[in-house]
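ok so I'm stuck.
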Amino acid sequence: MRTFLVIIFISLTSLAGAAPLRITITEGVVEPLPYAAPAFIGETGASNDLAIKITELIKSDLLSTGLFREVLSRLIYLASITLLLLFNTRIGKL
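replied:
not stuck anymore, here's the structure
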């Protein structure tokens, strides 16, 4: 009985002292999202030119919003290969 009263007392005192949680957001940070534009490949010379123009149009539209920044596709490719090589090397050592 005594233990029960102690538990009731502790729970009531902790609830009485608890204030509602309030979070105030005063400002935000907007950073452009990185993206890599795909390289479209056409079957003929004319379609290849059109594919390049489509890629450039998409890139210019995204960049003009200010919400995106282009990263170099080649760097992403090299980074992914490096990570793959590191992963395979570590797995081989297990």
